[in-house]
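User: My collaborator and I are trying to settle a disagreement about how two of our proteins should look. Neither of us wants to argue from intuition anymore, so we agreed to look at predicted structures for both before our next call. Could you fold the first one, then the second, and keep them clearly separated?

Assistant: That sounds like a sensible way to settle it. I'll keep them separate. The first protein:
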Amino acid sequence: MKILSVDTSNFPLGVALIEEDQVIGEYITNKKKNHSVRAMPAIEQLLKDCDTEAKDLDRIVVANGPGSYTGVRIGVTLAKTLAWSLNIPLIPVSSLAVLASSGRYFNGYIAPIFDARRGQVYTGLYRFEGDKISQVEDDRNMLLADWVEKLKDYDGDILFIGNDVTIHEEKIKEVLGDQAVIAPFVSNNPRPSELAFIGAQLEERTAHEVVPNYIRLAEAEVKWLESQKNS
């Protein structure tokens, strides 16, 4: 089974192609550039380099959020279009689960972090059971200060992972001390091959069933709803 994975949910752009138990190709960049311009050419180049045609794909896996509203929309729209046109399944996977998977060999809990501004983060809590990642706490959007206070109740080390951890590292260490482990920078980019691996284990979905998971409304939507309520 050949699986194409796509992740444009944050600054890193990642696409990968796996077949059975082998990573055939993987492409990652971490640049603040327009994913709408770069994602499809990256897929085309990956398939070309891997001597694979779109018709050879058996399913597509997409990171469907949370993250950048625009980035999530781009990835989900692109993946839905490809899956629909090729008439193959589309599997959505939490962007936070993908990031947490970079801590695969950590013996403890894993807390992926995406900054959500104003002291807030997108996060969740995961751990590995054998080769499979499991969710301990649901993905959420909350104040980092409240999140680390909640994590104090857990018995065991917690790996904080992601490019945005440095923004909150001081507060994390202040509250959790030695319980907090900061992942090395080489682990901070979500791996699209991990995304494909997770998606390979999940139930098939159709393109029409898959939607973005923003977790919270965009600021513009919040203001619009408030204006409608006040009027």
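The second protein, kept apart from the first:
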Amino acid sequence: MAKKHGISDVTIYAWRKLFGQLEPVDVKRLRQLEQEHAELKKLLTERDLEIAVMKDVAAKKR
């Protein structure tokens, strides 16, 4: 199966270790949560950048 899809045996075993006990619904929910987490990290990074820019602008005005 792994060779058919171009995936190493090690990867298959790692996935089985992570997801072997999960039901398909659980795997889908996990992927949704991972996507949401990535989006939140992106928003946080953008907010931190905006704060840094505002601090820089405020410092230049003084």
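Some points you might bring to the call about the second protein. Residues 24-61 form the longest helix (38 residues). The CA atoms of residues 44 and 50 lie 10 Å apart.
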